[in-house]
């Protein structure tokens, strides 16, 4: 069975998520934006074996500690989609500007696409390609427990920003309505920032993608 713990990181409290298989104790960490020591502590406390780092997108606040974690454990990096390469390449120049001094550039071991699977222990996560916030954003979905990690695509009551380079509003709306929302109303999701919600709740009440959206 899939277990998870949300670990808010950096002064901005992005949702980094530690996922693990409770049968094998194998784990994967999604979006290690910073504070690698906090993430390592959580892994050690639970007696888990980290097997990979997964990325929804390559913004520095979600990927800044990718190199630190993957090097510490000697594990591979999977994700995001290859269209986010330019964001990875911007990390060195952005770290001073945004106050993420420890962030490091990294090389991903596997780009992800719609329809791919990522695995750890007995767990399989499905990959959905959801561009718009960044051009290479992906979402991870665990079908058995109806749980998704959506990064900065969708939030409780809001959606991801599209005013960054190569962001696109219509592309983002399309990703949410025609990809994420098809997974089911009862799917719970962990966003990149803030509290969890369900796709059904956002369909009902989200001012950007809900039934009463402008
Ligand atoms: Zn972002
Ligand atoms: Zn973010």
UniProtKB/TrEMBL annotation:
Q: Does the keyword Metal-binding apply?
A: yes
This entry's Gene Ontology molecular function terms read: hydrolase activity
What SUPFAM superfamilies does this protein map onto? Metallo-hydrolase/oxidoreductase
Q: What cofactor(s) does the depicted protein rely on?
A: Zn(2+)
The keyword Cytoplasm belongs to this UniProt entry's keyword annotation? no
At the top level of its lineage, which domain of life is listed?
Answer: Bacteria
InterPro entries xrefs: MBL_Glyoxalase_II, Metallo-B-lactamas, RibonucZ/Hydroxyglut_hydro
Segments forming domain Metallo-beta-lactamase: 13-193
User: What's the name of the protein?
Assistant: Zn-dependent hydrolase glyoxalase II family protein
Q: Which organism is it from?
A: Thalassotalea profundi
